[in-house]
Amino acid sequence: MKRFYPMMVDLTGRRCLVVGGGPVAERKTASMLEGGADVIVVSPDVTPGLQVWAEQGEITYHARPYRKGDAAGCTLVIAATDQEAVNRAVYEEAQACGAWINVVDRPDLCNFTVPSTLRRGQLQIAVSTGGASPTLAKKIRRELEKAYGPEYAVYLNLLKEMRQRIQETITDAAVRHQLMARLVDEEWMALCKNDPAEARRRMESWIEQAATAEISG
Ligand SMILES: C[C@@]1(CC(=O)O)c2cc3[nH]c(cc4nc(cc5[nH]c(cc(n2)[C@H]1CCC(=O)O)[C@@](C)(CC(=O)O)[C@@H]5CCC(=O)O)C(CC(=O)O)=C4CCC(=O)O)c(CCC(=O)O)c3CC(=O)O
Ligand SMILES: NC(=O)C1=CN([C@@H]2O[C@H](COP(=O)(O)OP(=O)(O)OC[C@H]3O[C@@H](n4cnc5c(N)ncnc54)[C@H](O)[C@@H]3O)[C@@H](O)[C@H]2O)C=CC1
């Protein structure tokens, strides 16, 4: 059994190769684009979705079969064709040039996998089953979607802002930690959902009070 190390990677400006143009290639392309990658798709044909991205300049598309050398300079490589020999050749090249490789129908030829991911603004929750059952990963992602609605994007933005403010205005680390802990709370979350402007006002005045108390000793 393989073990995977979870991490969040910034793919901005990184060249990433997808070989194949079917629905699976489209899904992997979508998630790499969200990660900021410069995606190159090589395939004789592509889905309508990939075609649109090619026309809009979101991806670079080469309408031809894969050939050796396509993986040069790529950080991530995904082999998503339905041809075993082609996927194998892509794997060999990626291994030779030190790129991270995912062969979509061969978990044994993956040194990275793509988790099922829920996104709410800056919040991302990624689910992996280590390749055992992608369908279960998807089911869990859907359950999490109900528990973590779009309001989390708003709430998290506010937390980010307030955290910065706390770091700038409160010098005592213990007080900073206490304030942050108290902002992460169901009540704030509910207020944020119903009236984000009011949530912001209350958070601001609350932090201001704490800062004043700190100064006056
Ligand atoms: C190892 C891994 C490699 C990788 O692709 O990174 C892999 C491998 C394989 N998937 C297969 C099949 C399916 N995959 C999905 C769906 C997803 N697969 C994804 C990831 C992963 N799939 C990685 C492990 C993730 C983990 O650890 O859990 C998700 C999470 C992310 C994404 O793809 O973006 C995305 C859900 C996104 C979402 O909606 O949230 C569905 C369901 C569907 O499409 O509705 C089916 C059909 C049902 C079934 O077979 O279970 C097959 C058999 C192919 C065949 O038999 O032909 C293999 C190969 C094998 O297992 O041998
Ligand atoms: N990992 C995952 O999440 C999943 C993996 N799979 C597996 O992934 C593979 C791809 O699935 P789909 O996208 O549905 O397949 P598909 O059959 O729709 O697409 C295959 C694509 O590969 C292209 N292709 C064929 N030869 C090529 C070559 N020499 N160079 C470049 N491109 C070439 C085809 O033109 C086509 O665009 C299948 O083997 C399937 O079993 C299926 C479901 C999920």
TrEMBL record:
Q: Which residues form the Siroheme synthase central domain?
A: 120-146
A Pfam family matched in the record: NAD_binding_7
Which top-level group of life is the source organism from? Bacteria
- Membrane-crossing residues? none
Q: What is its EC number?
A: 1.3.1.76
Q: Pathway of this protein? A: Porphyrin-containing compound metabolism; siroheme biosynthesis; sirohydrochlorin from precorrin-2: step 1/1
Q: NCBIfam families recorded for this chain?
A: cysG_Nterm
The family database entries (Gene3D superfamilies) matched by this protein are listed as: NAD(P)-binding Rossmann-like Domain (3.40.50.720), SirC, precorrin-2 dehydrogenase, C-terminal helical domain-like (1.10.8.610)
What is the phylogenetic placement of the source species in the record? Bacteria, Bacillati, Bacillota, Bacilli, Bacillales
Query: Key word NAD present in the record?
Result: yes
Catalytic activity field: precorrin-2 + NAD(+) = sirohydrochlorin + NADH + 2 H(+)
Q: Per its UniProt entry, what is the enzyme's top EC class, as one word?
A: oxidoreductase
- The name on file for this protein is precorrin-2 dehydrogenase
Keyword presence, Oxidoreductase: yes
Question: Which UniProt keywords are listed?
Answer: NAD, Oxidoreductase, Porphyrin biosynthesis
